[in-house]
Amino acid sequence: MHLMYFTEQPMSAYPEEEGRKRGATALMFSNRHFDPVAGSRLYNEYIEHYRLAEEVGFDGIMLNEHHNAPFCMQAKCNIFASILAAITKRVKIVLLGNPLPLADNPVRLAEELAMIDMVSGGRLVSGFVRGGGQEQLATGVNPAYNRERFEEAHDLIVRAWTQEGPFRFEGTHYQHRVVNPWAVPLQKPHPRVWIPGVLSKETIIWAARQRYPYIALSTAIDATKKIWELYDSVAAEAGYAGGPEYRGYLQRCHVAETEEKAMANARQFMWMQGEFTGLAHPVWSSPSGYFSPSYRKAFVEFAVGRASNPRAAAFEDQIRDQQIIAGTPKTVIPKLRRLLEETRPSIVGFWASDGFVSNQDALTCIRLLGQEVLPAVREMGKELGLWSPFEANSPIGINQPAPAVHRNGA
Amino acid sequence: MIATAPAAIAWTTEEIQIAGSSVRLRSAGSGAPLLVLHHDIGTPEQLPVYEALARRFTVLLPSHPGYDGSERPGWMRSVRDVAVTYQALLAARGLAEVSALGLGFGGWIAAEMATMAPRGFRRLVLVGAMGLKPASGEILDQALVSYIDYVRAGFVDQSAFDRLFGADPPTPLLEQWDLNREMTFRIAWKPYMYNPALPHLLGGVRTPTLVVWGREDRIVPVECAQQYARALPGARVVELDGAGHFVEMEQPDTLAKLVAQFAAES
After folding, report:
1. What pLDDT was estimated at residue B2?
2. Considering only CB atoms, which chain B residues are within 8 Å of A306?
3. Which of B175, B184, B190 sits opposite A300 (nearest CB)?
């Protein structure tokens, strides 16, 4: 198994009543409410968490990015990836990921990622995402061409990593006279690419066609099973068998020394989902053209307040469906076993804390996960045959072989 | 499309092949041809203004490609692409001496068409037209507001909105507005709702033009009326009290009369 630590890097230090007044805390929620003193403290606390995560035995650290929103302080995951490349020694740096459509110059991204791969000694996993709906607005990128830009930028980056330059690139959205980045990745043919997602069938199908592991982001167990049914059927069409090495799952999982404390802190996972201050303005989170037409009715109804967010469920439901797991290590482990048995992922991200969880509780959670939960999960993984892409040394893509140099097999 | 008023005139609907794409053209009435170009929100099938115009003109009402369920050409990426398509449509129909009435976003398309064929139209009427960067204000960005709030912003009299779309518009209409918004993003996302070259190109137009604006237009600032008048040689401006962006839906008779009078001038 490949077990990762994850935090959204929440920036909870803003006046809650201002968020309530605005009704949404993203995009147009003024950055006058951002406190850089608190921001400085929080960034450094998150670095402390990452160091501890490596120390207690996580295999990877998962990073992401969002824009104009307090639920995530990372505006550029490559910056924290660069920091981790230098201050950690062993963990994989798993970017889930760079939002490709937001890039105006994918070759620049290819260079940055190559630099991170070299500095880290070949520890980069380079995931790619479409970026959230409001991210398109925050960066002025056309939501109607989100998927076109995603696929084209991906193709350009992989070519920049694998094809000797100089060459010319003439795409629909990207045109480059000269593609010839001096920096190229250490890992050959290129770093592994994993694709996270929540809802869009198109992304699952695309990832399966590329033979890239898909990381389901905190979906309910039944929904996760449907994702793997779809992935496996596309994999079969593409000529390979799906299975654990192509399956990842991001599990909200908070552990504490008592059940009560764990449950109280787990409630903070609702913070970014808008329960306390409101997160996403429905219009901004689903700009026209961003979602697949099959969701048009659902998002239109959500946008005018006729239906609840198609992606949100109540806390109690998420506890029942195990989208959120909380407890002491003893009570959490059987729930994780259910996840592994029913959905068979080999990559599991532990999204450990969110919202206003104190620094002390966040550190305790990481320590308990590392000392008591991860060893048990690893045993289950062996018993259930959940071999990660590194352990299975699986091919890194549909047209690519397994990596030439196999490092850090955990 | 959503029917919002009983059909009082007979419409013919055709699919016309233009540059490899199918363009849906509805037409009604008799008399001199009048090309009517609808808003970014699409158009209801029937409107009192269409009926009033069809009594005096042969009204040609295409659905912009990709709007209101018409075929979406995947390659179409700019408003000028739409304008060229419509020039080809008029050529395919062998129509001459056509006048054009451009409503809001349709006004931008009509203005672009005029720059492509400076004497192409007999008369041009622009109503609350997008297309120019306002000198001081901003064009209301629909990307930041809900479908309902955006359309309501175009009305001074909210009861007119209620009559046309319902106080709480049905979901299929919202889906249609979302579809149309998506197509608007595909062709007008950035710069949003204007073409920086247009004020320069308009200087070459030799078509008599009437610029009509609702004084309470909250979607395209009324200052743009004067900007159009400065850019278009010999254009005249009429500003209407008590009207917003959707002049043809709030004051259909006034607008139909203005168009008829202007078109009758020699």
Report:
1. 53
2. 171
3. B175
